[in-house]
């Protein structure tokens, strides 16, 4: 199966604990050893937010802040590349083409951010669409898609399954709520909708959950079902 795995920066590198990155690389290696074709996308996490906050205070504009964010996603990408060793493409792919070429060579590409004004959620969806992935897995810090931000609202309930159009509606509602954050952003949801890629959103704190989701279709999270 061809799988794109998106690992949130808050999941891969909430700090610089090398054991956590090594555990992620082990999970990717084991899927690779099972014969899956893999692409990975890595987020910026708290380090990106710290840089962005500081630069905002220094008067940087939003595009400059995004460029900082992209640089941090690629730094996190280099950590994963170090752990994946010779199975990974040697540098983070800076374009979708570079990522696809790495897959064609038989390497595992690691992408970070690509262009300003996006997130790695959208990068993962676009890359999955570009390479014709069978499955897109979002390993995030929350166990799925909820009807509200579970960090803000105790009553938030999780969807076990959502149609892609329902996902778009749910995310649009959450994003309308100032300060709320959704595990997958609206652009990503729209790309998932048009591409019809089967998508799973799960808590990726334990990378073994990604392996079980891919290998055994066994996960505790939200499944986004393609629409005809
Ligand atoms: P992330 O996609 O990692 O943000 O990009 P996030 O969802 O807040 O973080 P995670 O899930 O915890 O990792 C970090 C920042 O990098 C810039 C944006 O400023 C974003 O907020 N970025 C990222 C881009 O501008 N373009 C991209 O394609 C990706």
Automatic annotation (TrEMBL):
GO biological process: 'de novo' CTP biosynthetic process; UDP biosynthetic process
SUPFAM superfamilies named in the record: Carbamate kinase-like
Catalytic activity of the protein: UMP + ATP = UDP + ADP
Stretches assigned to coiled coil: none
Subcellular location: Cytoplasm
Chief location bin: cytoplasm
EC main group: transferase
Keyword Signal included in the entry's annotation: no
Residues given in the record as UMP binding sites: 44, 66, 114-120
InterPro entries: AceGlu_kinase-like_sf (IPR036393), Asp/Glu/Uridylate_kinase (IPR001048), Uridylate_kinase (IPR011817), Uridylate_kinase_arch/spir (IPR011818)
Aspartate/glutamate/uridylate kinase domain mapped to chain residues: 1-203
E.C. code: 2.7.4.22
Pfam families for the chain: AA_kinase
Activity regulation summary: Inhibited by UTP.
Function: Catalyzes the reversible phosphorylation of UMP to UDP.
Oligomeric form and interacting partners: Homohexamer.
Family that this chain belongs to: Belongs to the UMP kinase family.
Identification of the protein by name: Uridylate kinase
